Amino acid sequence: MFVDSDTVNEFRSEDGAIHVIERRCKLDIDAPRLLKKIAGVDYVYFIQKNSLNSRERTLHIEAHNETFSSRVVIREHCCYSVHPENEDWTCFEQSASLDIKSFFGFESTVEKIAMKQYTSNIKKGKEIIEYYLRQLEEEGITFVPRWTPPAVAPSSETSSSCKKQAAALALAVPDPALREGLGSEPLSNPGGAPEPAVGTPDDKLDADYIKRYLGDLTPLQESCLIRLRQWLQETHKGKIPKDEHILRFLRARDFNIDKARETMCQSLTWRKQHQVDYILDTWNPPQVLQDYYAGGWHHHDKDGRPLYVLRLGQMDTKGLVRALGEEALLRYVLSINEEGLRRCEENTKVFGRPISSWTCLVDLEGLNMRHLWRPGVKALLRIIEVVEANYPETLGRLLILRAPRVFPVLWTLVSPFIDDNTRRKFLIYAGNDYQGPGGLLDYIDREIIPDFLSGECMCEVPEGGLVPKSLYRTAEELENEDLKLWTETIYQSASVFKGAPHEILIQIVDASSVITWDFDVCKGDIVFNIYHSKRSPQPPKKDSLGAHSITSPGGNNVQLIDRVWQLGRDYSMVESPLICKEGESVQGSHVTRWPGFYILQWKFHSMPACAATSLPRVDDVLASLQVSSHKCKVMYYTEVIGSEDFRGSMTSLESSHSGFSQLSAATTSSSQSHSSSMISR
C-alpha cells in the first residue's frame, strides 16, 4: 500500500515534450508481523522513474527496490504506447523479475507474499483507471490534447495548462503496481482532430467499419482480432481471410487466440487441399441431388439472416447415399455452406448491419426409422464433423419443426457431435407447436412462411421422395467415385519424420527453366532444401502413410538421396536451407542454371543448423516413425515452366490457384523472381 513519496530527480525538456521524474516511494507491505519484526522494518522503499515522451506518445515506468536490495532484487518495467493500427488505442506491455538471494530463511514466504501482492495489484488496475478518469471529469478535463511543438511565444494560459496536466499525469500513480491509472489520457486522442471516417473494409479498425461489418466488439475482442490477423499476415501472406471469417473462429473459441489460430490454420489448409473456394464455380451437383435433395434457400428471417429450408422428413437419405456416396453428399453440403457465406455478405450490404450467420428451418414430418439407417447416420455425423470444424458460428438459429416420436433417437445419436454453443441455438417444436406463441412467427415474417407449413409463400424447395433403385450404385463404384471427388486437387500431401525427409525429383532438360513451388506447413517445423545432381537417384523408397480423406488428409514419405551419396561429390545444394514454421505458407521459384535432376526436400527441423551431409534414411529410424512428436506434415504443389513463360510470381500462374478467393478480399503477389529463388511467406 502506497504511503508517501519524495521527488529525487526531475527533468523537463525545453519544448515540454519529455518529462522524467524519479521518486523514492514509501510502501506498507501486507506481511506477517513476525516477518516484519525479524526484518527490522515497518516500511519498504522503492525507486520509481517515470519517463513521459509526448512527442512519441510513450510512457515508460521503471521501478526497483531500495530496501533489502542486497538480499532481494525486484525490477519492473511498464510501457504504454499507441497501437500501430489505431491511434485511439493504448498498448500496454509489462515485464517484472524477482530474485531472492537470501532472506533470513524466509525465502519461500517472501516469494509467496510478492506473488500475492503482484496479482492483487494487477486486479486493481481497472478500478484505479476509472477513479482517475472520474477525478479528471470532476475537474472539467474530458480530454488531454495531443502534444504539439510550442509556438515562438506561447501564451501563458497554454503553458500553464500543459504543465498542470503533465504534472498531474506524472503524479497520478506513484506505485508501478498502480500503473493502470495512466493507461489512456497521455496516449489516446479522444478530443483531438477527428480521424477521417472511411467506413470501408480497407480501414480495418475504423469504428464505422466495425459497427457496419463486424458488430459490437469489446476492446479485448478487437485486440484479439487484430493480433490473429497480424499473425495470419506474417504466415499466410496474400491469403488472409476477411475479418468476418476470422471473427467466426475467435467467437467459436471464446476469443482464445491460440485455439482459434490452431483451428483456423487447419481449416485454411483443408480449404486449399480440396479447393473448396472454387466449389461454387467448378462443381455442378449431380441431377439426383437436384431432384431428390429436399433443401434450398428461401428468403430471410426477421433478423435479416438468409433462411435455408430442409425437409429432412421427406428426403430419402438411404437412397441418396446408395446412389451418390458419402463424399458427393458432403460436397453438396459444403456448396450450401459456401453459398450461405455469400448470402451473408449480400444481406450485410442490403440491411446495412453485420450478418454473419444464417437460419436453418428443418421440417421433420415424415421422419421414420428408415432415416436411422446406419450408413446414412454415419454420413450425417461426418457432415456435422466437417461443418463444425470449418464453418464455426455460421448457424444463427436452427428451427426444428414437427418432430416425431422417433426424433429423440436421432437426437441422441447426433447431439454429442454438435458443439455446445451451436446446440444452444436449437429450437425444437413437436406437432403443431410451431404455430403457437413463441413459434415460427417470432422468427419469420408471416408472408414468407412456406406453403407446406400452412403459410402463404410458395417454396421452391424440391419435395424429395424415394430415389429409384435403378440409380443405386455398387460399393466399388461409390468407392472409386469418392476417391475421384477428393483427389481432384493440384496439391499433394506428405509426411516428414525425424530422420526421414520427403523428397521429390524434377528432371530439367533445358537450362534456365523455372521450378516453382507453393507449400503449407500443416504440422511441425521443417527445413526446405533444393539439391542438384547430374545423375538420377535410384527408384524411390515409398512408405504410404495414409489415404486421401477430407477430414484428415494423409500423405506419403519418399526418400531419393542414397545413403552412399556425398554432398559436393554426388549432388550439390543450389539454395540456402529455409526453416519454415508450423502454419506458414511458402511460395517461391528457382531459375535453374544446369540441366539434370533437381531434388526438392522437406526435412524435419528440431535442432538449429543440421549438417547438410547428414541424411539418415528410413532404415535407421524405423522406431521413430511411430513417434507423433517427430512427425511433420506438408501440403505442396510444384511446377516447371520455361523462363520465357514465367511472369514473375506464383499468383500469375493460371494453374496455381493457391489463394482463398472466397474468404479473402484481395490476394497479393509473392516476391518477384530473380536469378535465384525468392521465398515469399
From TrEMBL:
PROSITE patterns in alphabetical order: CRAL_TRIO, GOLD, PRELI_MSF1
Subcellular location: Cytoplasm; Golgi apparatus
Keyword Transcription regulation tagged: no
Main subcellular localisation: cytoplasm
SUPFAM superfamilies in alphabetical order: CRAL/TRIO domain, CRAL/TRIO N-terminal domain, Supernatant protein factor (SPF), C-terminal domain
Domain PRELI/MSF1, chain residue ranges per copy: 1-141
Keywords recorded for this protein, A-Z: Cytoplasm, Golgi apparatus, Immunity, Innate immunity, Phosphoprotein, Signal transduction inhibitor
Residue stretches making up the CRAL-TRIO domain: 285-461
Region (Disordered) location: 180-201
InterPro entries noted in UniProt: CRAL-TRIO_dom (IPR001251), CRAL-TRIO_dom_sf (IPR036865), CRAL/TRIO_N_dom (IPR011074), CRAL/TRIO_N_dom_sf (IPR036273), GOLD_dom (IPR009038), GOLD_dom_sf (IPR036598), PRELI/MSF1_dom (IPR006797), SEC14/CRAL-TRIO_domain (IPR051064)
GO molecular function: RIG-I binding
Alphabetical list of SMART domains matching this protein: CRAL_TRIO_N (SM01100), SEC14 (SM00516)
Pfam families the UniProt entry points to: CRAL_TRIO (PF00650), CRAL_TRIO_N (PF03765), PRELI (PF04707)
Sequence ranges assigned to domain GOLD in this UniProt record: 487-640
Function: May play a role in innate immunity by inhibiting the antiviral RIG-I signaling pathway. In this pathway, functions as a negative regulator of RIGI, the cytoplasmic sensor of viral nucleic acids. Prevents the interaction of RIGI with MAVS/IPS1, an important step in signal propagation. May also regulate the SLC18A3 and SLC5A7 cholinergic transporters.
Protein's name in the database: SEC14-like protein 1
Species annotation: Camelus dromedarius
